[in-house]
Amino acid sequence: MANQGELNLNEGNKSYASRFTDGKLALPPSQKYAVLTCMDARIDPSAALGIPLGAAHVIRNAGGSARDAFRSLIISQQLLGTTELLLIKHTDCGMLTFDNAAARDIVRKNKGDTAAKEVENLDFLPFPNIEQAVLDDVRWLQDRAVEQGVRVTGWIYHVETGEAKRVI
Ligand SMILES: [Zn+2]
Known about the structure:
This protein has a single domain, classed as Beta-carbonic Anhydrase, Chain A (3-Layer(aba) Sandwich), CATH 3.40.1050. β1, α2 and β2 form a beta-alpha-beta unit. The chain contains 6 helices and 5 strands; from the N terminus they run αβαβαβαααββ. The protein is of the alpha/beta class. Strands 2-1-3-4-5 form a 5-stranded mixed sheet. It has helices at residues 4-19, 45-49, 66-79, 100-111, 113-118, 130-142, and strands at residues 33-38, 56-61, 84-90, 151-157, 164-166. The model has no long low-confidence stretch (mean pLDDT 98). Helix content is 39%, strand content 17%. Bound molecules: zinc ion. Zinc ion binds next to loops. Residues 38, 40, 63, 90, 93-95 line the site of zinc ion. GO terms for molecular function: carbonate dehydratase activity; zinc ion binding. It comes from Massariosphaeria phaeospora. Its EC number is 4.2.1.1. Zn(2+) binds at residues 38, 40, 90, 93.
């Protein structure tokens, strides 16, 4: 299974490329918005959020963290013209299941002391409550001068039902 990703790519990309007809899209997102969400494998942003190809940036990381995504958000907004951000966390997120100390312990157990040293100052940005984390991230963005003029809304996507519900 170590190369299942490559196997899927080889098979899936052939069929995708054979049907592909959208090779002339512009670089900046045509609908001028960005989505920030979690890397969770159960979320299919294009399908779940109705995003046409070329319309929006989709930025993903563990937890859909605004701090982690800040660099990409600035590029999206300042260099590529997006003016709206949908910040979407989700139910049953892995980030609810550990804290920094636990993550560092796992690295030490799996990879040893040298590896543990490499992550000793890394903030994994876990959170104990989804709704509060959405509010915190939206406010963290709204507090920054560089985000002024960007319309930011916060959402929770429900992995059990496929529904996205607005929080703020
Ligand atoms: Zn998640």
